[in-house]
Design a protein that fits this description.
Blueprint (H helix, E strand, L loop, with lengths): L1 H9 L1 H12 L3 H16 L2 H8 L4 H21 L3 H29 L4 H29 L2 H24 L13 H7 L1 H23 L1 H7 L4 H13 L1 H14 L2 H18 L6 H27 L7 H16 L2 H10 L4 H24 L10
């Protein structure tokens, strides 16, 4: 199920150019389309946290599948640009609902090794991101961008039914039975929540803007759109081992030093990108940056879910996820708007790299002074 959920979040990256060719939309409009999917993923996280204080994780996950099926169907049938944005937002809603409930459930199913379990779950999600460019390229041979969304809608409906049947026959943990106060959990765990948001928020914003315009960037340096999609596949492909390995490392290494190391390497990647030219240098870069940025996601999830007590886990995780996604979501529209305003890719990338550097230096300073929590409060 997570395959379809994540595919809905990343499907617009390889569809940017086909939609542009069909509609003649500007970079800003296309950036807004991708942003709406990520904004949709951000906004339901707190409401989902409230839902999880009242109903089971499995029922919430079922609801996310229904939302995805309906939202993707609506988007595939939309002809008005405004309705297309609404559809993308609805598809994003499904991912926000699902990931808040499912990641919490996964960590409760495997409390001794949350990083490892979350890493495996992330691998399944990342396979969708890896396959998206190739799947879209294949579908475009036999149909249009609408065909791709129609196929996704059918798949979403099928996996929702399968998940529901399996969940009804399984004995699921009730570790969250005492988690009934979202605001209380957020107040009690605000230190680790803010640290998580600071670690991944700006990095996620930069990555969101970068990967949604990765094909556009490739064409700006003289490569074909097909080569750009190949580079995007390499970046997403590197995320598969990243989730697997990073989840295990997150269970074994000190959380804050590990997170700051990942952030430092990602910052370096963004700063070095404008100096690279040619397909092969960008191919190597794509693998490295893809591995690094995808390593941070299971690390942050393990940092949170591995240490939050049962009575706070879902509520605090939902609060953190909402903050992270609200920071990440504007990445595409920010990049698209700046490109439309005449800002070049090299200038844009250097600016984003410097912003990351400021965040990194600030967090390293706080860590050296002992002001970043290594775990949640008991």
């Amino acid at each position: 199920m997570v395959f379809c959920i994540n595919l809905a979040r990343v499907v617009f990256a390889p569809l940017i150019e086909p939609i542009r060719a069909t509609t003649g939309a500007s970079d800003a409009a296309l950036g807004l389309l991708a942003t709406m999917a990520w904004a949709g993923s951000a906004l339901p996280r707190l409401p989902t946290g409230v839902l999880l204080t009242r109903i089971s994780r499995a029922k919430v996950i079922f609801g996310s599948g229904v939302v995805l099926t309906l939202g993707t169907t609506f988007t595939a049938l939309a002809f008005d640009p405004t309705l297309l944005l609404v559809g993308a937002f609805t598809m994003g809603l499904a991912s926000g609902i699902y990931l808040t409930a499912a990641n919490t459930l996964v960590s409760e199913l495997y409390p001794d090794r949350p990083g490892r379990a979350l890493g495996k779950h992330g691998v399944a999600a990342q396979l969708a991101a890896v396959g998206a460019p190739a799947l879209i390229s294949f579908v475009l041979i036999v149909g249009t961008w609408r065909t791709a969304l129609q196929v996704l809608a059918v798949a979403a409906g099928l996996v929702t039914v399968v998940f529901t049947l399996i969940a009804r026959r399984s004995q699921l943990p009730d570790a969250g039975s005492e988690d009934r106060d979202l605001l209380g959990a957020a107040r009690a765990q605000w230190h680790i929540i803010v640290t998580s948001i600071a670690t991944i928020g700006i990095a996620g914003l930069v990555w969101n803007g970068l990967f949604n315009f990765y094909v556009t960037y490739a064409t700006s340096v003289g490569l074909s759109a097909g080569s750009g999609r190949t580079l995007l596949s390499l970046a997403f492909g590197a995320g598969v081992p990243a989730f697997y390995v990073s989840g295990r490392l997150a269970d074994r290494l000190p959380s804050i030093p590990y997170l700051l190391t990942i952030l430092a390497v990602f910052t370096g990647c963004v700063l070095v990108l404008p100096s690279l030219t040619g397909f092969w240098s960008l191919a190597v870069f794509s693998v490295v940056v893809g591995y690094v940025i995808h390593s941070i996601f299971p690390a942050v999830d393990a940092y949170l879910l591995g240490s939050l007590p049962d009575r706070h886990r879902a509520s605090a995780y939902a609060t953190s996820g909402a903050g992270m996604m609200l920071l990440q979501a504007p990445g595409s529209v920010l990049v698209g708007s700046l490109l439309d305003a005449g800002v070049t890719f090299p200038t844009l990338l250097r600016g984003m790299g410097l912003a990351l550097l400021v965040v990194l230096v600030t967090m390293v300073s706080l860590h050296r002074n002992g002001r970043l929590p290594s775990a949640a409060r008991a």
